[in-house]
Amino acid sequence: MKLFRGKDALIQGADLVEPSIYTPLGTIEFSLAVTSECFSPTHCSQLKHGGSLYQYYYDSFDCELVLSQMNHSLSLPQEVEECWGAVYRIKPNTDHPISTCSFSALWKEGYSWEDYGSDTGENLEAVEYENEKYRLHVGTQDAPLIMGKRNRGDMVSKSLDLDSNSVKYSVVLHSDQGIEVPITQMDSHEIYQVHFLIAWKRKIEEDISTWLAVDQATKEILKGEDIW
Questions:
Q1: Range picked from 54-58, 165-169, 173-177 for highest mean pLDDT
Q2: Nearest by Cα to 64 from 98, 108, 36, 30
């Protein structure tokens, strides 16, 4: 690992496939685009607690993705069937600044959800998807939280500017297809971090368990694999 740290984190190689999560409503795929070009992982390894590490090592940048199933125990009756987290870190290589970059968690064709809608909250951008049997949330950090991390120097590009309304409300994009986080220019010494959370359970009216499950910090995703 180049961008994440963890003692004896990798246990074995794994088949090189595109990162994705299988849910009762369909498959959600994670994708990376740099300067409008989509990139696939170059290596994949299994982590010691059942997660995966995807490595994107290219001439112009290094990127790593940790995909981990999380402890989804909430206070009763707030329970979910499964909760997964994905954390990207990307760093341009020397003399290769990145002009634009985008991270996405998008539905693969063939999904079975029937309705969706925005379900954001404080520090959270989320989308709810459901059919007659299941409810699922996909979530990530909202613009004010991202801006706060930038101001603290916490793995957000210093060039990110959310002062204008047009940028502020487009820093996280969500639709019927999923969630996308586009970012602006990165210098070669910077590391940018983005996370996604996905949780689902059988549908119960007025149950907010899946919404609560995707409202978690990045460190909670990594903690289950002893990674930081």
A1: 54-58
A2: 30
Rounded Cα distance between 28 and 13, Å, is 23
The DSSP line for 72-118 is ---STT---SEEEEEEEEEEEPTT--BS-EEEEEEEPTT----EEEE
The Cα–Cα gap between 88 and 102 comes to 11
The torsion defined by the Cα of 221, 225, 227 and 228, in degrees rounded to 10, comes to 20
Query: Is the distance from CB of 189 to CB of 224 less than 8 angstroms?
Result: no
The reported pLDDT for the residue numbered 73 is 60
Predicted TM-score (pTM) of the model is 0.92
Q: In which element (H, E) is residue 163 found?
A: none
Contact residues for 38 (Cβ-Cβ < 8 A; gap 6+): 31, 32
Which residues 6+ apart lie within 8 Å of 88 measured at CB? 30, 32, 63, 64, 65, 103, 193, 194, 195
Cα–Cα dist 28/112, whole Å: 12
pLDDT in tens, 138-161: 999 987 888 788 778 788 877 666
**81 vs 46: CA distance, rounded Å:** 22
Residue 69 CA to residue 48 CA, distance in Å, equals 12
* CA gap 128, 121 in Å, rounded: 12
> What are the distances in angstroms from CA 88 to CA 25, 76, 112, 140, 193?
24, 31, 27, 12, 6
